[in-house]
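B., you asked whether I could sanity-check this one before it goes into the benchmark set. Here's the sequence:
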Amino acid sequence: MFNNKKERTIFKCKVERLMLIKKIMFYLILINLTISTSSYAQWKKAKGIYGGFVNTIAAEENDIYVGIEYGGIYYSSDGGVKWEDKNEGLPKQGIFKIVIHGKALIAATIEKGIFISTNKGNNWNKISLDLPNYKKLYALEILFNKIYIGTDSGLFCSADNGKTWRKLLSDRIEVIKATSDRLLAITGSGLFYSNEEGKNWKELMIDNEHIEGFGCDIAAEGKSIFAIKNKNIYYLKNYDSKWIKLPNPWLDEDIPFKLYVFDNELYAAGIVGNSAVYLQNGNKWQNLNKGKRFDSDVNVLVKTGKRLLIGSTGSIFISTDGGNIFNKLYVNFEYKSISHIFQSGKYILANSSFSDSDIYYSSDMGSTWNKTKPIPENEKCNLIIETINKNDSIFYASNNRKLFNSTDQGNTWNEIYHESSDTMNIWIADMTANCILLARHHSDLGSDIYFTLSTDGGNSWKNLDFKMKYNDYNFASLINEKIVIASRGKELYITDNKYENWHLTYSECGALNSRFKKNGDFVYYFNIWGALYYSKINNFDADTLHTYFINSPDLLSIGICTVKNGTLFCINSQYKKLRKLLYTSDKINWGEILLEGLPENCTVESIEVNEKYILLATDNGIWIRPLNEIFNSFNSK
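And here's what the prediction gave me:
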């Protein structure tokens, strides 16, 4: 077979090499299967962050049902003292409306249809919506003892609890209401009314103008109709009368609001933070809750018996004296929106969205959380950022005009900066172990942005000789004891070590998209198209900016990233809608972790990785995943 010994030796080497390649391939496949299997494990929600966007309330005597954005349904049988979730059979999607229909409960989601329960929410069954061209649901009401739904393809009615449906109107239906003998619907083109059978529709107009568009709303009781158009309130006594204009309770304030009418009394409730609720009293408006505004959005107002209930962002308020005083109910809804999360010394810090801006900290790597006390005067926190001294774990928080710190886990807050100008707003641009960089600008979006720096933890401050138009500003970072300010284009402005002289250079990767992520000797960033880059920190100067492209699997989808122990973690999420988590240690080869277990349409706002967990801050709380499910020895990397 072989002509000589040399040919035999060559053949033997080829066989051994082939066997070695097969062995290596076997182990690679085994490792890949191990990682892939672990990647399908479920993410779990961290404990201790309570709240949620209360979309809807249905109440009858002491029974109260609330629907939460992305959170399902909670139930109280004692008027709001104790709560339990009632989600068996419901999808992991937000509930925007709950109605009581005889002995049944009906709950509506935006994209997953409607569900019915006949045992006080202990379990739910889906109602079939085999409707032409139906995709989204916008309204649900029980009127004339029937179910009415407004969808993107029309108005539908069911007289048999959803077994069959009849189409009444073709158009996108946004609002459904009724007087004692007429059905009302706001469509994409105006306000229309008909009998309960949905025949012979006619349009109601105000001063020959359609009642439609952003901010329009109606309330109805008896034969009366109240409507909002162009931020004005109008009253129609009956269908044969003329509209009467009523005063706006917010006067000159640009406040969006909704109308409610109970027992012939008209209420107006603001639907943005720092909102108020008014009751019409004759030709004037009475500011309820002793004139005090609520600290979050008023999403829904309900009256049952002598009680008024308000559903807000993270809370429920109840009044038993006609609205003179509202008391906040303690509820353990675990569906709070979290906008930032990051390591701060031995703690993990997080804060909620701007609607209530609560601050949380965790001392066990992110598994359980505690809420700090609010910053002084209950002012809303705009941003929290990592500690200056990682050994002392100092917390920092800012509102529009003040900066605070806390050395006792948020139990007390100390003011360390106060913007002197009444028209100037501030936020924390970046922090390092020694420096705090503040950005300052007037409320006018066309104004300039200025920068103020402290190099001693906030004891003293220096205004920098640099400004940029607000519309041109992108972000600012502290890198290698220098300040780097990026415009919305390719321009990068970099100081010297004394923060006095500025040099202009240009980003080789095009317009950047977010603040730099620093880890070890490298800084990471991505451009507006989602392409990832990195640079050595010691080369980050005015003369040379080395940028290296990272070949990620889906360049147009990278939007959120962090770095830990040299491993880069990125959310592959176009418009931040969840898909999967990508990671790489060599900037070439990528692994992926599926985000199984999170609610549908959940949005990731921030990501943090520590020695124990991967943590995702979302609009549905904080979700965690043990690192050892993916990496057996992450700390040794």
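One thing to flag: Residues 5-39 form one domain. Otherwise nothing jumped out at me.
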